[in-house]
Amino acid sequence: MGRKRILVTGGAGFIAHHAIDTILRETDWDIVSLDRLDYSGNLNRLNEVVMQHPAEERKRVKIVHHDLKAELNPQICSAIGNIDIVAHMAAGSHVDRSIDFPMEFVMDNVVGTVNILEFARKQNNLEKFVYFSTDEVFGPAPEGVKYKENDRYNSTNPYSASKAGGEELVVAYENTYKLPAIITHTMNVFGERQHPEKYIPMCIRKINVGDTVTVHSNSEKTKAGSRHYIHAKDVASALMFLVNYKGKLPNSETRCHKFNIVGSTELDNLELAQYIASVQGKSLNYEMVDFHSSRPGHDLRYALDGSKMKNMGWIPQPVNARLAEVVSWTLSNNQWLM
Fold first, then answer.
1. What is the pLDDT of residues 34-48, one digit of tens each?
2. What confidence tens digit (pLDDT) does each residue in 205-234 have?
3. Per CATH, which fold does 5-189+228-261 belong to?
4. Catalytic residues, which ones?
5. CA-CA distance, 125 to 122, in Å (whole number)?
6. What topology is assigned to 195-226+266-302+318-337 in CATH?
């Protein structure tokens, strides 16, 4: 019996390249990275982590170029080969762009998901299809509220709506075709090699050079927006935990189980910027900005309940230690801030 084979869609993307690094370190599986290499996909990311592994291990990674807006034709299917596990991480994920160009996100996140589902259901021995969704499908969380996996959805922008649409199709494929699928909701992810427009690398760069950091807040400019930030390595760890989990799953309203992958601590964006400044030994220059006026379609607070995964035996690493590592690494590898 040969080694397991996992297909990671969006493999050159930020979260997925960390997942591929983790799979190389922790398994003997063969890995196929499927990516169209657009705005968010960067082969330099994937190359950098793969090249850290011995030459013999690097041979386990195969790269296939494809845009999931198109169905996987016989040539692409042949290039991928037979697959045991699919980790569907490819997605359009830029909220502002989704507001300007909603149909792009329907094509990427709804049509693209159907195309990879169609590929998956034709596999003879598929063990698991993992769909990576977002906390944003639940919409803004009032103070004191943390959404559980099967709470109602309330998408506030086309990006989150398209991810919710993809989720429902995954559920439908489990119910209709008995596809062995699960869904994850992941909160704001950070880590090495993140796109420099994202909040944490932006803070690292601006604080380092003494620029003013913009902190989105409520309309009174008294309270900053907050998130449960989580390192991409912890997301990869959760993926491996779920794929390998053999225990009894809690009851669910549907056959398709959902799991919240949540960071260890809720931080508001001012606290986060202050911590990044303290790690650098710099002072923080910041300005509070009315969040909803400056960024329509965005939400001030997201929050998920991570108790399901915790009760199953998985918890993330403490966020402050992870943040300190990322700040130090990024300043030493400042080509990723360009």
1. 998 765 557 789 999
2. 999 999 999 998 888 888 888 889 999 999
3. Rossmann fold (3.40.50)
4. 135-136, 159
5. 9
6. UDP-galactose 4-epimerase; domain 1 (3.90.25)
